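Protocol step 4 of 6: structure prediction from sequence.
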Amino acid sequence: MTGLQQKITDFKNDKNALILAHYYQTKDIQEIADHVCDSFEMARLAHSAVQELLIICGVHFMAESAKILNPDKTVLLPSPDAGCPMADMIVPGDVIKLRERYPDAAVVCYVNSSAAVKAVSDICCTSSSAERIVQSLPEKQIIFIPDRNLGAYVASKVRDKELIFHEGWCPVHDCVGVSDVLAARTAHPEAMLLVHPECRGYVLELADFIGSTSEIIRKALDSSSPEFIIGTEYGVTEHIAALAPEKRFFPLTSDFICTDMKKTQLSDILVSLESGRYEMSISPDEINAARRSLERMIAV
């Protein structure tokens, strides 16, 4: 542990803070976090946290979700400009228009979205829970926002419902093409290909396994295969490699980098702990409206 990491750990203990880091964070940040997790687990852990101070090492919507679930606690986002391009692709007005067009449909909102969008949705989901949540709803029409790729994957699994999509996508996963898969397969012919459902359908069709971040990690650890091509952000490849040094892991493409997730630095976390920057603030009305969709997700 470096001197800076030790200083953060000491401050965290003194202030009784909980540090939650997403798998896409850099390795040095993962090492000082209390939990390294995907977006669903982060929401669940924030919801059950006993600490009064939550440090979210991720992007803006993750800190918003933590605050919505813990309105009386202090939630800090060390890098306030760490956003999510997918979340920015939809606003509440888009959801309202879809509701007017499909009045009998339920709105399922991917957790990669703003508090304002969650507030006008019926229930949230993550990539690991999306299929289960859509299946649990009584409505036969489902407006799925904002990720068209995850929505299409869910539609392929839940055939008895009509899914209506919004044109949103993750720029990191959406840009992966068949040529990337073929190149990786050629370079590592014995490796299993594990892919995130935010990728396009024609990439998913070539995969050996499709799953959320946590599901990809679990599959790689449990499988007897010695080699894997990891079809999601590079931080996941690093994380699994540290957990299973006896196996070999290769990124599907060198472009698998979420620049927003990499904005948080150790120095930012230390400043947050020392000074209380940057505190997440959401109006009580928006918290109350958005909380229902998140709590419904956690309950399912």
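Step 5 (inspection) to follow. Residues 87-170 form a domain with the Rossmann fold fold (CATH 3.40.50.10800).
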